[in-house]
Amino acid sequence: MTSARRGNPVLLGVAGLAGLLVILELVPRLGLVPDRYLPPTSRIAAALADEAGTAAFWRALADTLFAWALGLLIAVAAGVLAGLVIGSVPVLRALTASTVEFLRPIPSVALIPLAVLLYGTRLGSTLLLVCYAAFWQVLVQVLYGVADVDPVADETARSYRFSTWGRVRYVLWPTALPYVFTGVRLAASVALVLAITAELVIGAPGLGKEIATAQNSDAVPTMYALIVVTGALGVLINVLTRTGERHLLAWHQSVRGEVAT
Amino acid sequence: MGVLKKVLLALGLPILLFVGWFVLSDGSENFYSPPLRTILTAFTDTWQPDRLRADVAPSLLRLFAGYLLAALIGIGLGVAIGLNRRLRAVLEPVLEFFRAIPPPVLVPVIMLFAGIGDGMKVIVIVFGCVWPILLNTVEGVRAVDGVVLDTARAYGVTGPARLTLVILPSASPQIAAGLRQALSIAIILMVISEMFAASNGLGFTIVQFQRSFAIPEMWSGIILLGLLGFALSLLFRLAERRALRWYEGLRAAQRRAG
């Protein structure tokens, strides 16, 4: 089978997206769904264009991205540090295993009431939720990564009298790095979800709050437009983290292997 | 000795943390972080059988209904999409987009369509946690070993048998991974949909406590949610280990072989 007969995947993908947009235009126009609930694509697009012309929209976008980036940064730094320390000391690892397993599944939204009491509708509320949720993603991946260190390589480094720092830098870190990136990738999308959730539920400034406002004022097309923006942000973050991972890990087997075989 | 050490290691830190919290918070005058003693009293006072029946049971029912529906839809559609290359190419960007939308923003949308009843909450849960199941199933079905498929075809294993004996088992570890991701999303959405609009449920009650400044009760609700999340993930792990025992064994054998 040639690729022409199968169809170009990019082209088919674009066709799929276009098809969705057409369906969403036609469904309300034909009256299958009341357009009060689901406005046609064109009206959502118009609302999006309107929004893009307002300063409030860009400020909300910036607020969301700032909370996302800062929360992610704190979570990644804390997760990597804690993961390396806990992972490389067997006693600590055994001691913390049950606690990590216990704290990880606690839904981060359980902290919403606490965040409201502590920080009200300020940035701190969003950061608390984002950091909590993203931290575990990173920590658990780093722990897997540290556990994956080749014992022979570690022993070799020891017999060459590498310092502790040297072993971390030249044995531990390169092994754990792909796991760290997986953790960062997972944490990046979780952080976005939590940032927008916090804004939506608590009312901290950002896109989520704008969605809640649009809903309360019955501005349905605007609400859809903002939701599309959050989806686009999510896709963008996915694509960026994946590309970044491929570039930064170009030397690593997990990436090289795909090319070779 | 070995068992004792294991138990000590597993329980040591949690007990230490718990005792630490208890002792350090005992004289707490801070309104927002009351002594753990008070929280525990509030816990036993608040979560009595009537309350569990009135608030926790409806939450759990919605959670299970939504999660099961999402699993059925996700696995069903996932198998269909995974088996058809062209369909996959058409739908992949659309699915990626839907997955990238933060699920909680769907609450306002679904409220438009389904009002604020139980249906809304179940739909929100389905809509939020169907994507990881769907996409993982697609990946799992796609990754079925070609040699295995050819062998099955050569032995005349076709139709439903091909699906249940070859494709689904082979994709099951990945499907399980999707189900695990979906479980935590389902809990989050259960709570959030109740925070928006509800007259009962765990999320509703906790927000109610927070708004009326019943701080120890609020803390007890947070702890209950934590215990619930933990219990559900434990249940899932047990079920997964049971269903995928062959896979764990295979992996262990591969690891030993190096």
TrEMBL record, chain A:
UniProt domain ABC transmembrane type-1: residue ranges: 61-241
Residue ranges crossing the lipid bilayer per the database entry: 65-90, 102-121, 127-149, 170-202, 222-241
UniProt-listed Gene3D superfamilies: MetI-like (1.10.3720.10)
Keyword check for Mitochondrion: no
Top-level taxonomic group: Bacteria
Stored CDD domains: TM_PBP2 (cd06261)
Protein name in the entry: Nitrate ABC transporter permease
Record keywords: Cell membrane, Membrane, Transmembrane, Transmembrane helix, Transport
Topology relative to the membrane: Multi-pass membrane protein
InterPro entries reported in the protein's UniProt record: MetI-like (IPR000515), MetI-like_sf (IPR035906)
UniProt similarity note: Belongs to the binding-protein-dependent transport system permease family.
Residues spanning the signal sequence: none
Organism expressing this protein natively: Actinoplanes ianthinogenes
Key word Ribosomal protein present: no
Pfam families xrefs: BPD_transp_1
PANTHER family per UniProt: ALKANE SULFONATE ABC TRANSPORTER-RELATED, MEMBRANE SUBUNIT, TAURINE TRANSPORT SYSTEM PERMEASE PROTEIN TAUC
Compartment list: Cell membrane
Cross-referenced PROSITE patterns: ABC_TM1
TrEMBL record, chain B:
Protein keywords: Cell membrane, Membrane, Transmembrane, Transmembrane helix, Transport
UniProt-listed Gene3D superfamilies: MetI-like
Cross-referenced SUPFAM superfamilies: MetI-like
UniProt entry tagged with the keyword Cell cycle: no
ABC transmembrane type-1 domain: residues covered: 56-240
InterPro entries registered for this protein in UniProt: MetI-like (IPR000515), MetI-like_sf (IPR035906)
Compartments (UniProt record): Cell membrane
Primary location: membrane
Similarity field: Belongs to the binding-protein-dependent transport system permease family.
Protein name according to UniProt: Nitrate ABC transporter permease
